[in-house]
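User: Is it possible to get a 3D structure for a protein together with its bound compound? The compound here is coenzyme A. I've pasted both below.
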Amino acid sequence: MDNSQLDAVYKRSIEDPEGFWAKAAEDVQWDKKWDTVLDDSNKPFYRWFAGGKLNTCYNALDHHIEAGRGDQPALIYDSPVTGAIQQYTYSELRDQVAKLAGAIAAQGVTKGDRVIIYMPMIPQSVMAMLACARLGAIHSVVFGGFASKELATRIDDAKPKLILSASCGIEGKKTIPYKPLLDEAILLAGNKPKKCIVLQRPQVEAAMTAGRDVDWNEAVEMANPADCVPVEATAPLYILYTSGTTGVPKGVVRDNGGHAVAMKWSMKNIYDVKPGDVYWAASDIGWVVGHSYIIYAPLLAGCTTIVFEGKPVGTPDPGVFWRIIEQHKVKVLFTAPTAFRAIKREDPNGEHIAKYDLSDFKTLFLAGERCDPDTLNWAQEKLGVPVIDHWWQTETGWAIAANCVGLGMLPVKPGSPTKAVPGYHVRILDDAGHEVPTGKIGNIVVKLPLPPGCLPTLWNNDEGFKNSYLNEYPGHYMTADAGMRDEDGYLYIMARTDDIINVAGHRLSTGGMEEVLAAHQDVAECAVVGVADQLKGEIPVGFVVLKAGVDRPNEDIIKELIQMVRDKIGPVAAFKTAMIVKRLPKTRSGKILRGTMKKIADGVEYRAPATIDDPAILDEITESLSEIGFPKK
Ligand code: COA
Ligand code: AMP
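Assistant: Yes, that's possible. Here is the predicted structure of the complex:
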């Protein structure tokens, strides 16, 4: 028998969303209370807390100082790659953010202007985001593992007045200069920002462009601290670009009001943390997990957050997570299953775990990709704490399905992220839009309105928002995940229904990679599929057909293709395997059979679709894969 209040709370949230979220919103400090809890006057667009005004940075910093938490640590920077450990109290962080906001304002940035942040995992990156929020400016963080072209695409879409960057990132043992990538991106972009504020890190000195680049420390030194600017609850706090079904990323918009309400609610009810607790999301500020759970949610909730500049293994060893948990008294850790697979591979018996006192550690949360039961069971057994898989997306900004620990934990079923979270009316539909029976796989959708915190639209692209998410199942948001529900109401997330793959918890589009390969002079056609990988969950594998008459060595072409993906998308794509094949398997109507190719590469049973044009091609694909070490079935 469980004592969870989840079902009762869930029911209330679905039957009376306005009452439910109005109550939750009392936990946020408003400059002006909202006129309407949910403005549905322009369906299918919904706006939460319309008419309300607030400042997210005020709620995340100043409010806690006024409430007496000024001396509590707000942020701990732990960087095994540089040997630094630094702590900032709420007062110190607020003061530094206010000065940086002054420096940003001095470059002419005001409410509603966009600022791109291309930075590594250092406290200044967090300050940059909060400083934008303080001014009511809209930040757009671009992950450091993306190449210049990806950065340029985001610059062109967001049209930032200013870019904030640093001289380098540190990836394990490698130092990666960021400034040449930034310079190249600005060169490629049609819309050039007027100014860049660049932080010189001691490891690499960036060359500055006179008249455009401003030294971070000098700018901050000269600046006057800026106050919080109240903004509309419905005004964007940030834009975060994420992979879509083409090479063009989607600009997910997050508003200020709904976001603050959802973040605070989630900290109490999903993660079961309270002010003063130490909460660590081992992710990157470039991803949604970083936005929500390194920065905004823990600070809005008055917790201490950790900014970790390192990797789960190799910095220096697979014990680094446990060292940090002991040293900083971490209560909750949130990371991706891939991090645990990496640790388990190097420390299968948990010898590093045994070296540390983990008595403050209460719960491990995993997300970003499907958590395989093996990894979940290993973590649970070795750590002796509940391991909670939860499911969400960049678009939602917080969990759609979770074991809400703060509402009383439900039994964990490995392979399931448990049940729909309050606020999300999750349904599973067949292609015709009918609810599928229990235990049957279908398309997972969320009945509108989405709860606060989820994307209200795409940046400057209402039509794209409707086309991508709303048109397929009218009245619903399409998650593009397929899955099922069991007899206890537990959800199982099985696969994407589009071309998105998850590589080490990083979301990538195979369509985007195909666009890069297709641009090679010798390529006639190509397909990229996500193939199962023991460490990264999935890795991209490219199949390429050459144009007639090309007689260069295959190895040279493959090397060029791999380099092109690295240069155009970035190292994060982890595109390292490609092969030249004579033909691609297709249906008679010409559709490439990517699903069948994936099954062959994964070494699982497959049946050639009845519509296949020429089944013999599947044998050729099997042969090509086995030549480079893939299993033959
Ligand atoms: N800046 C520049 N380059 C970056 C980068 C960044 N912020 N992040 C990753 N890269 C590069 C890496 O150096 C690597 O380059 P390489 O091909 O030259 O080796 C490449 O991008 C792939 O990186 P990654 O997928 O992280 O692989 P990895 O082998 O370096 O590490 C893991 C594997 C599992 C240890 C690592 O992915 C990890 O810690 N994952 C944690 C999960 C996570 O953060 N998920 C985010 C969502 S919760
Ligand atoms: P991102 O937008 O990068 O957070 O990626 C979102 C996608 O990752 C989802 O649509 C899922 O396909 C996948 N995903 C995230 N968390 C989980 C999970 N807990 N279980 C299964 N898939 C997940």
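The chain has two domains: 3-310+390-479, 500-627. The radius of gyration is 24 Å.
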